Amino acid sequence: MEKREFDVVILGGGPGGLSAGLYAARGELSVGVVDVSMFGGQPSNYLELENYPGFKRIGGYELMEQFEEHADMFGVEKFPMQEIESVDLVSSPKIIKTKQVEFAAKSVILATGAKPMKLGVKGELEFAGRGVSYCAVCDGAFYKNKIVTVVGGGNSAIEEAIYLTQFASKVYVVHRRDELRADKIIQMRAFNNSKIEFIFDSVVEEICGDELVNKIIIKNVKTGLMSEIATNGVFPYIGIVPNVEYINGQIAQDSKGFILTDETMRTSQEGVYAIGDVRNTPLRQVITATADGAIAAVYATKYVQIQKEVTV
Ligand code: NAP
After folding, report:
1. Same domain for 208 and 250?
2. Which residue from 284, 288, 290 has its CB within 8 A of the most atoms of ligand 1, so it is best to mutate?
3. Which end of the chain offers a freer environment for a tag, N or C, measured as fewer CB atoms within 10 Å?
4. What is the pTM of this model?
5. What domain range includes position 162?
6. Residue nearest ligand 1's atom 15 by CA
């Protein structure tokens, strides 16, 4: 197995990880960024962003490509397609093992992001890829002139529902309350879209079909009444869960698993920082992940410099 040593190893190459990499490498540290897949994280799948300052409208993939090129410019070393097998965040140096490489690092920045939460209803797993999808940008085009249902009332659900109206003949939005959580500007766009029909106070009980999904059973949470909706696709957008399986109790987390940090992004473990969607944060945006990355890199740099002075 290849062995590599770095001042800082960053786990996760989304906007937070790449921004931390850029800042740390520019601060003259040796930096390795490790990702389970290619770089860019969740925003690579966003069709368009219109709230990243300086870019009135930019494709998610295009923006993340620019992040990556910018990190390259400062000599960040990238390790794509590396599944984390184990981490020791307590030892000095800290050790991260993937199948291919054993990394030793003075400091580690955790930027592993989050993944879609499952509905946990009958039919969800069975019909995954056959009518159940968690990525409208990836799969929306399969639903040309078909009926789809988005579940959830947050920014993701409502933005993706609007996106799906480009293809689908009708988009139902099933939400468990009678008020949306999404930003008002996004809500207004959805309310003004004639293809979108809201079904409030309702939850999905079951996803049904033969080869492919053809209907869902929903329950009105106020009346208890059950009903069926004919639909060809179901897109659950009910929030996210952090990618933290590798942590194994070495770092303090909140009740949902998000990593706890202070305002310098420091975790409960010395020399370990957490940034972006994986940490307990009030706002999950490209800009906040990016800002987290800058803060963590600056404090990781200070930490590494102290470690170097101690060992001289
Ligand atoms: P979110 O904001 O947490 O919204 C999740 C939605 O799903 C809520 O409406 C919630 O209902 C509902 N929900 C949760 N659990 C459910 C369950 N078991 N069954 C049915 N419904 C359930 O998640 P998100 O929309 O994925 O967004 C995640 C983060 O990314 C947020 O901070 C969001 O602002 C951000 N984001 C921002 C943008 C943007 O600014 N353009 C775009 C996408 C995402 P309740 O409302 O009743 O809790």
Report:
1. no
2. 284
3. C
4. 0.84
5. 118-236
6. 238
